[in-house]
Amino acid sequence: MADKDDLGRSSDMYVAFAFAAADVLLELDYEGNTVFAVGAAMALLGRGARALTGQPLARIIHPNDHTALSQALKQMSGGERVRNAVLRVLRPDGKASEVTLSGYRHPSTPDRLMVALGHPGGFHAHKEDRVGETGLLDKDSFQAMAASLLESAAPDDPYQLTLVELPKIDALSGDAEAQEALATELGNRLKALSVGGDGVGQLDDGKFGVLHSASVSADSISQSVTQAAVVLPDAPPIQATLATLMLDVADVPPEEAARALTYTLNRFAMEAENGGNLADLMKDLQPRLSATVKQMNDVRNTVTGGDFDLMFQPIVDLWTGVVHHFECLVRFKGEDNKSPYETVTFAEDTGMVGMLDMALLERAIGFMRSSVANNESLKFAVNLSGYSLSDPTVVRRLKEILTTTKDLRKRLVFEMTESAQVRDLKAVNDVIQIIRKQGHEVCLDDFGAGHAAFHYLRALKVDNVKIDGSYIKDAMRNNEDVSFIKAIVGLCTELGVTTTAEYVEDAETANLLKLLKVRFGQGWYFGKPLRPSSDDIRTAWRTPTLGWKQGLLYFTK
């Protein structure tokens, strides 16, 4: 039978076990020796808990992770909590497996540390998520890691992010091997100071982000950068530029906090590239982050509060004059005369566009079933961002909604919009095919602008391609644009895909597009975005350019 002290210790440990949801709990002294161990050590570590007692924890940790372990123990000894540091343990068969290490100083025994080892969960970075041979996270993976860590951060102990920019070192010009050696050494040193021993991302050439606790000072990071030059004995001291952000973003969900951070960093980097003074820009990062969080809250409140309206712009068959469908365009209340482009782009850049897309879709569905729009000849197109179609949570919601729209399958059209590159086109195409199989047409919007180019058309099977308006506006004066339109129409015809031209502003352009065999047109020539003028479907859609004829809505000009 265990003595009273062991029983008391075990009781305390099991309470902590339930709290931490870990697999193995350890009590260590400040030298890292295991004083007590309990839990499912055999399953996690390949050895029983008793075998750990009296042994240095470092004995079962992979040698390459000893520095990270030492740093974690040092942080705990100093009174800091360590959360979800990823380390590799060596099992008895010599194989390495990853565990998470969390811990803090024992609350009642000052010379002891409480440490929890568990299975890795949440974000897990693979080799392909890292930059070169340095092992540092790339920008996107750094964002995902930040989201995972922010979710587990204590509200009273927010993390900090320090941006590090290295100056160009003339002595390294053209010496790729020396540059890589410096990056690797710097990465290892910054990792040792970061949350989890892996909270470092390479955001750009010479630019790094370090996610760390408040106990890690900017001076210690600066010293680590300077000390990294030990691999370059002939190089001058490295004087890096540093800026630190307090990630106190309690007003938004954790995943949005990470997106706010990434959006702020991207805007900061863009302005720096456009000639902004880097040191001055860095000083503004904290207010920038706060402003981003506020704007995200404003967008969320607008969407959840339903503070938006839909307007409808006709898309006309150039050959028959019949209105094929209306595109649903969002207008935020109080901003009727202002383009929603900036808000929609911000929502996409911060990962909130899925919330907006689903709200607009539900509003459009409700409208289509209303007395003013419930007619077989009236079709409506709703925009879906490529980002939304890449988000599993949004896709699940979309599928749920589509199970309720059997009555609208021939009338509800989707346009895939894009202002940021889609990384997994195959996954997006899988979703598009689910939509099409349920009877809904899908259009690829803004073809030829930005990322939406020929490889999209190759990867995404759609029903219609909307040619970007920048080519249409100058088609009457620019033979190159005409050649481009011809090429798109020819390719789409071969693929069995129809084409739509936007920004059709006059009859001359409409006639040219008809000669080029473009099927549909959209623009002010056919009609500006409108709201139904009455509750009577017979008069609601009549305008100076639109009218009913034999049960169909026609362009009448």
Quick structural gist:
The protein has helices spanning 4-20, 41-45, 49-52, 66-77, 139-152, 176-193, 218-227, 254-273, 278-283, 285-304, 341-349, 353-368, 392-402, 425-437, 454-459, 469-473, 479-495, 507-515, 537-540; strands at residues 24-29, 34-39, 82-90, 96-105, 112-118, 130-131, 136-137, 160-165, 200-204, 207-212, 241-246, 308-317, 323-332, 380-385, 412-417, 442-447, 464-467, 498-501, 520-522, 546-549, 552-555.
Helices and strands, with pairings:
Layout: H1 4-20, E1 24-29, E2 34-39, H2 41-45, H3 49-52, H4 66-77, E3 82-90, E4 96-105, E5 112-118, E6 130-131, E7 136-137, H5 139-152, E8 160-165, H6 176-193, E9 200-204, E10 207-212, H7 218-227, E11 241-246, H8 254-273, H9 278-283, H10 285-304, E12 308-317, E13 323-332, H11 341-349, H12 353-368, E14 380-385, H13 392-402, E15 412-417, H14 425-437, E16 442-447, H15 454-459, E17 464-467, H16 469-473, H17 479-495, E18 498-501, H18 507-515, E19 520-522, H19 537-540, E20 546-549, E21 552-555
Parallel strand pairs: 13-14, 14-15, 15-16, 16-17, 17-18, 18-19
Antiparallel strand pairs: 1-2, 1-5, 3-4, 4-5, 6-7, 8-10, 8-11, 9-10, 12-13, 12-19, 20-21
